Amino acid sequence: MHEVSIARSIIDEVKKSCSRKILVRIEKINIKIGQATCVSPESLDKAFTALKKDTPLENAELNIKKIPLEIKCRECRKKTRDAQWPVLLCGSCSSNSVDIITGRELRIDTVEIDDSKRQF
Amino acid sequence: MEEKILKDILSSNDRAARSLREELTRNNITAINLMSSPGSGKTSLLEKTLSLITPDIKPAVIQGDITTSLDVDRLSSFKVPSIAINTAPSGGECHLEAGWINDAYDRLDSPDINILFIENIGNLVCPAEFDTGAHKNVVLISVPEGEDKPLKYPLAFKKADLMIVNKSDLIEVLDFNLNSLIENAMKINPSLKHMVLSARTGSGFDSWINWIKEGMEDD
Asked: Residues of B with CB below 8 A from A37's CB?
């Protein structure tokens, strides 16, 4: 259950990035989770829901976008989209000498803020 | 209104890991992170290693467990600096993070070491996501666990520099297919090195001790 640590890190990083006035108006935190990570979106959502209580982010929801795995072959230089994890093979030449381009993301992308609660 | 954050969720851990690695390198210490399922033999590997090392290796050990200091107690007769990190008080996390290791390293207060073994918490999933600050990652698998483990827990094998196959004395008893295990591991990480040893009999430890020494020269 390292999703608890990840949820805690999300709260910490968002708190570091936004002023308190903004934090309390955040409705949605847009997260990108790569397919080749050991993170369960369901567990992460539950952990976040539990941890956000009594923080300025208690009105925020997580919006998790799964990022498919894309690899690039070191032999033929071609890219393969939607590669199958975990045995990574080039879709063109079947080489196993490949680099992951996308699919390892654990990233906070944006936050969506409720403008109607804006205070002047 | 939408505001960009564009931050890696684990950026704090990654920063802590980088900074610890730099500090260890400055102090001429090579850190080795050991990852495995519970019961693969991480502590047995360390016990045997500590009994065999030559005076040029000056080790310290940081051991992670959810609770108890049983593993540290097992190493106490070797008189090497060692410290346990228990995660139960902070929520029972099943992995070690770089910041906790950094705190433990500070508490070790052992200037005269050149190898730091980090025994991660027995778990093949969570530790793989968190950079510990170690220079080398080692994944252990023991013969009774079966040949398909790399396919089931790929990230730990993908991140590792070395796979140690422990309990080699059971290969024949359990009709274990070593080639199949190595083949599965290479499917996940084509550049993964491997060693076959037994922490019970000491077989295969020459290669392991040499690998440790070579790592000290690299860093």
From this structure: 129, 155
Q: Does A58 touch chain B (CB under 8 A)?
A: no
**What one-character DSSP code corresponds to residue B26?**
H
pLDDT tens track for B155-194? 999 999 999 999 999 999 999 999 999 999 999 999 999 9
Percentage of residues in chain B having pLDDT higher than 70? 100
Alpha helices in B109-219 (DSSP H): 149-152, 154-159, 178-188, 205-218
Q: Which of B9, B152, B183 would best serve as a mutation to test chain A binding (most A beta carbons within 10 A)?
A: B9
A57 lies in some domain: yes
Looking up tokens 């969570």 gives B126
C-alpha distances in Å from residue B21, one per residue of A97, B29, B96, B186: 28, 9, 15, 27
- Tell which A residues from 30 to 49 touch B, by Cβ distance under 8 Å: 31, 36-39
Name the closest residue on chain A to residue B13, using Cα atoms. A9
CB-based contact, B158 to chain A, within 8 Å: yes
Q: Is residue A28 situated within a structural domain?
A: yes
pLDDT 10s digits, A53-100: 999 999 999 999 999 999 999 999 999 999 999 999 999 999 999 999
> Measured between CB atoms, which of A2, A31, A106 is closest to B93?
A2
Gap between the Cα atoms of A109 and B86, Å rounded: 33
- ipTM rounded to 2 decimals: 0.88
CB contact under 8 A, A5 and B158: no
Among candidates B6, B128, B3, B155, which has minimal Cα distance to A32?
B6
Is the residue at A64 inside a domain? yes
* Residue B179 structure tokens: 């080639």
Question: What's the gap in Å between the CA of A18 and the closest CA on chain B?
Answer: 9
A4 part of contact set with chain B, CB < 8 Å: yes
Domains assigned to chain B: 2-218 (3.40.50.300)
Handedness of CA B87, B88, B93, B99 (dihedral sign): negative
